[in-house]
Structure formats: C-alpha cells, structure tokens
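Exercise 7.
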Amino acid sequence: MATFQRIDVQGAKERLTQEHVKMVDIRDEHSFDTANVAGSFHLTNESISQFIKETPFTETVLVLCYHGNSSKGVAQYLCDQGYQDVYSVDGGFESWRIQDF
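Solution. The predicted structure, written as tokens, is:
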C-alpha cells in the first residue's frame, strides 16, 4: 500500500508546472471561494467520487488544507484508493498565501 509524502509550498508550486499534477483543496467552501490556488479542485465529501472518477490513479495529487494538518489524512485516503504519488502540502494554504504565490 502506498503512503503519502510531504512537500513544502515551493516544491508544490514547482510540481504544478509539470504535466499530470492536480492540486486538491480541502478547505471549506467559503474559504475556497474567497481565495484558492488557480486550477485547484475543491475536494469535499460530495465531490470526492467525481474526482476519483475523473482523475487517473497515475496523476500526482497535491493535497492542500489550512495549515498542513488535515491534508495528511486526506492524502493517505487517496493513497488507499489507489493513487501512487500523493503529497500533503506542509503549511497549507496559509503558507501558500504568505509566500504570495
């Protein structure tokens, strides 16, 4: 069984420039609608089946939350579903915002 890896926001930003990389944001709807990483997928309990249906297991998945804690559980869940290259973004959206990406 695969396990997720951790990545800092700079590494995540660099990975997003590559092909076959998806960013998923697990923050609440209001936070996501207020500010998000361009092109990210808002992953919720309601949208997860759509994400799995539309996203090949060969894609790299970066999981973003508020501060880099909740993303770990979701990253492991995605590994358990069959994704092989999954990262929890350390520091979450707060670090992304501070870096001013």
